[in-house]
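Summary for the steering committee. One of the milestones for this cycle was to obtain a three-dimensional model of the protein with protoporphyrin IX containing FE bound, which we needed before selecting residues for the alanine scan. The sequence and ligand used are listed below.
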Amino acid sequence: MDSKLLSGPGLPGPAVLSLIAQELLRPDGPETVQYVLSASKDKPAHILHYFARHDLVLELLRDSKNRLSTKHYDQNMGAIPGQINLLPGEDNDQPTRWKILAAALDHGRRISRKDMKGAAAFARTLARTTLQNIKAGGGTETNLVREYGYVIPYLFAKEFVGLTPKARPSLLFRVFVLARNFRDGFGHKRRASDTLKAHGPHASANEYLLWSQLMFGQIFGNYGLRSKVLTFVSGLASKLYSKQVERSIRDNTPSPAPAFTGGTLIERLHEVKPDFVGPNTGKDTGKLSEEAYDLHVKSIVFEIIASFHILIGISFGHVLDVLLRQNIDLKDFAKKLGQKDGYFLLDTILNENPTTALVFRRARKPLAQYGIAKGDGLCFLITAASKALVPDGCPVSPSARRGECPNIPTPKDRTAFLNFGPNEHKPYELVAGGKRSPKAAYDIAHPCFGQYWARAILAEMFIALADEEVGLPDMEPADGAGAGVKNFAGIPDSFMVRFKS
Ligand code: HEM
């Protein structure tokens, strides 16, 4: 074993994490760095083992089932104890949640992760219509990240999952928005056109956005560093979000013009309910109480909406930022996105500015080789691991990269980039035997379940943006050339554009 030891009263923040990554990635660096989180009044000391070498990260993640667990998930993802258990969480009933989700997706007209044509077509319509509406608004400035980047995935999730937007914003939400708009520009000059809105067509998207800005920026990037105030406020926001989810499930409103034949996810979850609920519940009957089923449904919907809206929204901002900062021609990029291996190009760009920096596991058993005891934590620096595969100075521009950097990953290196966890380019690729089963998605490596939707939606968003008729060719950055995307609470928040006069 080759390991370095660090310790402290709190988990390391981004600066220390970057030093840990540097140490791990030195040519003769250690395989793991151990971090001892010192004991506090109510918690014993906890040991965390950091990994950043790509080969080790992959090897350990791909064999998750026997050695590692995802036990940390529920408490860290803003789930509400007793009410929300996430799909990768680890209570006894986790397999049931995956079974319910699989049954709902298979119900009637099957939704397959292998076929994204319908999803792409719907995302295209949403993207084009939204841009046309922005354009129709005239010469006013628009925040492209908030009014487009987060809105398209929200609108997609709204239709796919079946959300019922609220008629009027809640008081709590209005208070949040006031507080959010109060701080002067978060490091940049606030402009009248760049405030979060509690009313209007995107108010509902903003409500989810606000929740996730409080939660998500803290999750993958700054694990464990949340201040007490932020924890309190995120708890409130989490409850607000949960109420929206409950309302949507209760209302179960079919879409007036369904984009997906076979019904929304919520309709499907209601329809498969009789297969899971029975008068005699328990292990021997395999049936659930109505209450238990409803809690599973709430958990599934909670997680799926958040993943669609926020992770895709954040990724839009990250890709846009790379394009702007590296002066990548949008038209060239969009053209290549639509071609074979276009999705790999998207992964390459996301690798420059990844959405997820870390994933965590718990050791189910001792891993003596790395000095890991049962119950210890493992933290995989997935961003650092895959960034190290691309040597410094390798251009990511679609036309330049191949010739100038022959050793960087190609579409054949399916698991090179880890932005989606142990990445897959085909569904179930990492599952034993490549077979589909309700258990398949969570059994082995926990690759991102939604990555095919994410890539399809993101690609359509950039293709529409590059389009002569509806997109950017007609817009200019309101802050002049060279400005990048601005962040709030660790996630992309603002890039102002205006239509050329
Ligand atoms: C660009 C957008 C996205 C990014 C960057 C992303 C990232 C990730 C990552 C890193 C993991 C692995 C977590 C771990 O191993 O601990 C993961 C898992 C997961 N993702 Fe995504 N995700 C995205 C979009 C989505 C979407 C749209 C959905 C919804 C359908 C989704 C659903 C899930 C689920 C359910 C898991 C858990 C899988 C399991 O435990 O087996 N994700 N995602």
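Key point for the committee: The radius of gyration is 22 Å.
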